[in-house]
Amino acid sequence: MLVCVTGGTGFVGAHSVAAVLAAGCRVRLLVRDPAAVGRALGPLGVDPARVEVVVGDVTAPDAVARAVTGADAVLHAASVYSFDSRKYAQVRRVNVQGTGLVIEAARRAGADPIVHVSSVGALFPSPQAELGAHSPVGRPREAYLASKAAADLLARGHQEAGAPVVISYPPALLGPHDPYLGDQNARLRNELRGLMPLWPSGGLPLGDVRDTAALHAALVTRPAGRVPAADRYFAPGRFLTTRQYVEAVGEVTGRWLPAGYLPARAMFPVGRLVGLLQHVWPWYIPAEFGAVYTCAVAAPVAVDAPSLGLRARPLAQTLADTVGWLHRSGRISARQAGRAAGGHPDTVASGRV
After folding, report:
1. Which distant-in-sequence residues (6+ apart) come within 8 Å of 27 by Cβ?
2. Where are the domains of the chain?
3. Are 250 and 194 in contact (CB under 8 A)?
4. pLDDT digits over 262-314, tens only?
5. Which CATH code of 3.30.450.20, 3.40.50.720, 3.40.50.300, 3.30.240.20 fits the domain covering 2-174+207-235?
6. What are the helix (H) ranges across 227-285?
7. DSSP 286
8. Which among 236, 253, 263, 293 could bridge 312 via Cys, Cβ 3.0 to 4.6 Å?
């Protein structure tokens, strides 16, 4: 079975490629930079020679067509995940335009299934207390979430037209071996460095990238031709308040992490001001409006939401493995990593998180 994967050199994509290969499939990647293949897959124990590479961008129709031609299934994981106001144009172009091109090309090529990697954030804010397969797409007032919502509407439109499109909804993800140090792992690093003394109230759904990768491998290898009315699945995770998150990090590292908590909506003006300053300030400011907004509008996923029976690994294991990797890769010091410096969850997990 040949699976075409877009975004295969990113955090979610690389882990998903490793899981798909482990399931016995062949993989073809659509990548902009061939050199990134080894950097992303090597740390996961994957020989880059095992994957076929098509060079191109998800916003280039010819490249997308070459990548999906002959593929039995397509996993569309390409996305720009950023709350950085300087990247809004790129976010919209890749996340919305790219999704439309990939799904349409995959349909023409006869791929089945076509898995679109969305985000639980595409369903924020929700009129429902809990999220499930039939939750409506949200209308968020934030650029990244709005791009994921728009892409989700495109994917659902193809579903309603009878196409074999499957949608996955990962939570915010942590985990080791992040090729570009994405938003969540960067936030954890900043917290351990003492750069986040203030947090918004509210919370976020959080999971492990390896659990999401396992879901994607299960979805692309399932029998073709099954298109239930709502073919939508939630990657394993859990909902944490921001206070619970900081406390869990402190428990795993054995450190006291001082933090203050303010009402999320009261922090909106600060987030918007940072967005404006970021256009003229040369260094990244870890206080984006998008992160604050997400905490304000996030909702938990229902316990019975479709997940193919997969369960989230313990939060302590995810945090310990991620902190240990941040230390080993030189992004934080041993002191900042605390007792999680080695990344051995069996020695640091207390069972209470």
Report:
1. 2, 3, 4, 5, 8, 17, 20, 21, 50, 51, 52
2. 2-174+207-235, 188-201+239-348
3. no
4. 898 887 777 677 667 776 667 666 667 888 899 999 999 999 999 999 999 99
5. 3.40.50.720
6. 242-253, 268-277
7. S
8. 236
Task: Summarize the chain as % helix, strand, coil (round to 5).
Answer: 45, 15, 40
- Please tell me the pTM assigned to this model: 0.92
Q: How many CB atoms lie within 10 A of CB 26?
A: 15
104 three-class SS: helix
Confidence band of 347 (pLDDT split at 50, 70, 90): very low
The 8-class DSSP code of residue 9 comes to: T
Look-up of token digits 């007792």? 339
Integer CA distances (angstroms), 101 to 39, 60, 77, 159, in order: 27, 8, 13, 15
The angle formed by the CA atoms of residues 157, 158 and 159, to the nearest 5 degrees, is 90
Question: Tell me: the pLDDT tens digits for 38-88?
Answer: 999 999 999 999 999 999 999 999 999 999 999 999 999 999 887 776 777
